[in-house]
Amino acid sequence: ALASKGVEVTVIEKAKLSSTLEKSFDGRTAAIAYRSYKFINSIGAWAEMEKHGQPINDIRVSDNGSSLFTHFDHTEIGDDPFGYIIENRY
Questions:
Q1: What pLDDT does 30 receive?
Q2: Calpha distance 48→34 (Å, rounded)
Q3: How far is CA 8 from CA 3, 13, 17, 25, in A?
Q4: In the chain, helix, strand, coil percent, each to 5?
Q5: 64 FRET partner, CA 20 to 30 A, in 4, 19, 32, 40?
Q6: How far, in Å, CA of 82 to CA of 88, rounded?
Q7: How far is residue 85 CA from its own chain's centroid?
Q8: Distance of alpha carbon 90 from alpha carbon 30, whole angstroms
């Protein structure tokens, strides 16, 4: 997105790209908020990520095993998910 506006961009990554795509590389995931998803989609990057992402439709917040919790359901605010969960390698 920055490059398309004339900003010179350099990405520096210690790991080789081929190793970052291996299943054993890094099992961590990222939660992408809906607004961030919209931006990623607008620059055309989501098309490659979409098949790997899972929508965040519900969020449950609790405290250290307490039986009390707060629940958020995306349908209470619309049809769109809160965002997406996706492995960092994608």
A1: 92
A2: 17
A3: 6, 17, 21, 29
A4: 30, 25, 45
A5: 32
A6: 18
A7: 5
A8: 10
Q: Six-digit token pair at 88?
A: 């960092």
pLDDT of residue 83: 95
CA distance 76 to 60: 14
Residue 30, φ and ψ in degrees, nearest 5: -125, 145
Token couple for 38: 């919209």
- If DSSP codes are grouped into helix, strand and coil, which group holds residue 86? strand
Confidence at residue 26, expressed as pLDDT on a 0 to 100 scale: 74
- Six-digit token string for 29: 């995931």
Residues in the chain: 90
CA pair distance 31, 88, nearest whole angstrom:
9
Among residues 77, 42, 45, the alpha carbon closest in space to that of 58 is found at: 77
Show the low-confidence residues of the chain (pLDDT under 50).
none
